[in-house]
Amino acid sequence: MSWAQRIEQALDERLLASAYRQRQANQGGSTRWLMVDGRRYLNFSSNDYLGLSQHTAVIQGWQDGAKRHGVGSGGSGHVTGYTEAHAAFEQRLAQWQGYDRALLFISGFGANQALLAALMQKGDRLLADRLSHASLLEAAMHAPSRLRRFQHNQPESLAGLLQPVVAGETLVVTEGVFSMDGDEAPLAALAALTHSANGWLLVDDAHGVGVIGEGGRGSCWKQEVCPDLLVITFGKAFGVSGAAVLCDEPVAEYLLQFARHLIYSTSMPAAQVVALDAALDCIQKGDELRQRLNDNIHYFREGASRLPLLMTESSTAIQPLIVGENHRALELAGSLREEGLWVTAIRPPTVPEGSARLRITLTAVHQRDDIDRLLEVLHDHC
Asked: Of 133, 135, 228, 355, which is the active-site residue?
């Protein structure tokens, strides 16, 4: 089979399975509204949970940072891309989360890949929740360590996998809030099991930090857990982009020596860091925004409970409606868009086979009327 035949076959298979992915250019709108082809849609697909991408203080921070530092970083952090702005923000993040150190990465995907590639060696054991993010599972599959996956959010399943003694080290991987189901991991139970087996716990809290816990500190803070490695990302509640790994002093120094994604990637611009610093101010003072978001979540769930679709046990901004078949999820998403509502159909391989869904995300800037409109159209088409 030639390269062309291989590629054509793979694309045809995706099309036949109603799993073909397509991007669609828009004219802006990362929170309540989205403009596509000149039409305005109510946006229920954004991860900008607090609406900070449009916050005047965050925008002003980026503009001020650009005036001072320019719009690029000029190199990796090991060359010229690490400024006083980077250093100050890392220190502030670490203090906020209660860690020795924080290291900035250009993406959450890159941070997770960097961690597993740098830490895992032959003879080690990596135990990951079955529904962990693709960045974690892909890195785990390429690591020289042995990967085993425990049943989603089931401490008993993890306990069984921890029983055999291994020669190397053990790393347990999970998320704080799962991106496709919106449910929260039982972090306290997972941490107790992991540490009783002398392992380390890595928590990716991309969808928890900013919206959960006191002052928006996230899932771990809420459950009074301090994982050995905490990954937070800035493309969700922070409203910007990038990520950080929080850890102790020796691990930070180790990553600075051996994490190739960190060493060889151009660092995020200092202007972006200044915007992130402003976003952190908003998060720390954001109790009213978090309350608005929680009110919207409860209101939606009450209205959606009467739909003939399966809802997950989610109390977070991520509210999936399980449809089942790929083609039906696409049809429903299309019907919603015809009515001016932007909702994304999520299909395998992103989610397990037979669990295609409408992934509805709520934000603090949605109005009650917006949610009423969404519920009305869902009831009409389901």
From this structure: 133
